[in-house]
Amino acid sequence: MRHVIALDVGGTGMKAALIGPDGELLHQARRATGRERGPDAVVEGILGFAAELSAYGAEHLDEPASAAGVAVPGIVDADQGIASYAANLGWRDVPLRDLLAERLGIPVALGHDVRTGGLAEGRIGAGQGTDRFLFIPLGTGIAGAIGIAGRVEAGAHGFAGEIGHIVVRPGGAPCPCGQAGCLERYASAAAVSEAWAAACGDPDADAADCAKAVTSGDPNAVRVWQEAVDALADGLVTALTLLDPRIVIIGGGLAEAGETLFTPLREAVRKRVTFQKLPQIVPAALGDTAGCLGAGLLAWDLLATTDSTEVTP
């Protein structure tokens, strides 16, 4: 059966799959990234993992993979196939696309993890059928993917969608990016965990604990949660003003709180908009498989481009 290899490389783990023409998951596997072994070992681990997937497909699906797609964190030059910088992995200017293509002997597409996840959510997830969307995962940090007519906009330099570094509280908490008051310092899962741990006096408390306390009516939890929701709403209204999306898809760890997050967030955004059109604000549909599915879509897109080029006179 015709299929592609998909890899989603994270700071701690790698998700992989063999994906059929209609997006069906034919085989899935996971493995530790092994960043403690150093950046070169991580690269070799990715190459080896991909080779194992290739061998599995050839044996169990009766033909080799047609292409591969890989999603990685950090700064990515997708056009050149280079993982330019990834602090968590210790990478600088890794020609990952060419290394994988040489190892596998097939075409390879390289993408940024959040934009790749957004591609999947937009095409086959919560944004399916929508011409304009904004995908925002709320995790350790906050990133974003701008969806336009079935593709995700990378920007001139690969930084499009970085909503987490919109300043929502001028002069506020310093951010590792060099600014102060960035959205992700107030509304990420990590920020909520930090604020709730300080408020309740338990250093091990996290954002999930805060959400539970909100549902039980704890006033300190309600205060911490509302501060995060207000900051997120401020950032979203800036994004709505600039991008005018039809739908906003919220994913990541904080979105697991469900309506504890979405009900007050929708209300906070509604109160802030004036001339802007209010978009739908919905939870992501694909969970932690979005990056892997998106990598598979990159591979199929690459094949479609290649096939089209081959038949063009």
Automatic annotation (TrEMBL):
Pfam families: ROK (PF00480). Gene3D superfamilies: 3.30.420.40. InterPro entries: ATPase_NBD, ROK. Belongs to the ROK (NagC/XylR) family. This is ROK family protein. It comes from Streptomyces coacervatus.
